Amino acid sequence: MTTTVAAISVSLRSTVVSQAKSLATKYTQEGVEYFRTQRNLMGWESFLQELQESSIFCLAQLPYTETGGLEELPQRACTSGEFVDEKDRFQRVAHVTYNETEGQQIITITVEVTWQDSGRPLKSNAAIELRNNFLAQYDPPVFIPSPLPPSPVPTPSPSPLPSPSPSPLPPLFPSGAVIALNAASCPTGWSEFTAGRGRAIIGTNPTAGGGISVRTLGQTGGEETHTLTINEIPAHDHPAATGSQFVQVIFSGGGGSIYSLGANLGSWSLPVSPTTGSTGGGQAHNNMPPFIALLYCQKD
Fold it and tell me: Which of 67, 185, 190, 255 is 20 to 30 A (C-alpha) from 165?
């Protein structure tokens, strides 16, 4: 009877430890993915500026903002009252180091989750290397138990429980993400973004202001060449030559007659329709800045 009770106790204890390890693995992966997402949201230069000096961060919360959220992380170890879960059991920190190797700027982030089981400290950690060329080296979570304290309960040999498989990390790019590649074809898991052929990409804009128009998702516009209209041509003048006009006045009378002309001989209105020489070809002009063509690919 004693042996049966002991076996049940050990089995329940193993189940509890296994569940705790699964949660710790989840919290560890969430911490790693948080920093990888921040690198993509902030861009490398801003990300590097925040983390270039080696430091430790408390990851009880994972803040997200329009500019990333990394700037709101407490740059210190967690206090005794800061936990990841509602049951106040798991604590999570990130150790950040910076170095340069062969011209590569490398930030190494080790996420560490700690908790206790019957007074025994346990730990799960994982590390990721982020670089300025988007390459990343990821080490999956590792469970590091502390030595078990002596137990007065006899320990039978139960059947080993299967170790929980860590959940796969979310993809680096979500479905629908669009990137430009200097390549002839898109990689596996990506398809050509055909709507982007021959087009530049601009951001959406829900409200007009500051000289910027409203732009909706998927809206297209612009033109590769453009022919100026009358309203688009600046106001200007052209010189015009009127030519010469002649007026002939004939007085009647025989030869040798003398005529007296008054001061006012009258006035005439001579219609004149001058024209300018024709110039210009009416052709469309190029309307594009200097460019380089790359292949747009969309995540499936």
Answer: 190
More confident residue, 139 or 151: 139
> Which residue range forms the structural domain that includes residue 195?
173-199+292-300
Say if strands 104-117 and 91-101 run parallel, antiparallel, or are unpaired: antiparallel
Please report, to the nearest 10 degrees, the dihedral formed by the alpha carbons of residues 74, 77, 80, 82 taken in order: 40
Asked if residue 81 belongs to a domain, the reply is yes
Same domain, 179 and 91: no
Distance CA 21, CA 19 (A): 5
Considering the domain architecture, whether residues 141 and 178 belong to the same structural domain is answered as no
The contacts of residue 138 (CB under 8 Å, 6+ apart) are 32, 126, 127, 128, 129, 169
DSSP 3-state of 131: strand
Tally of domains within the chain: 2
Q: What is the pLDDT of residue 8?
A: 46
Exposure string of 209-236, with b = 16+ CB inside 10 Å and e = fewer, is: eeeeeeeeeeeeeeeeeeeeeeeeeeee
Same domain, yes or no, for 28 and 98? yes
Q: Are residues 91 and 137 in the same domain?
A: yes
Mean pLDDT of 10-15: 57
280 part of a folded domain: no
Residues 51 and 177 in one domain: no
Q: How far apart are CA 61 and CA 92, in angstroms?
A: 9
The residue among 44, 41, 27, 19 whose CA lies nearest residue 126 is 27
| C-alpha Rg value of the chain to the nearest Å | 41
Question: Is residue 241 a part of any domain in this protein?
Answer: no
**pLDDT for residue 281:** 77
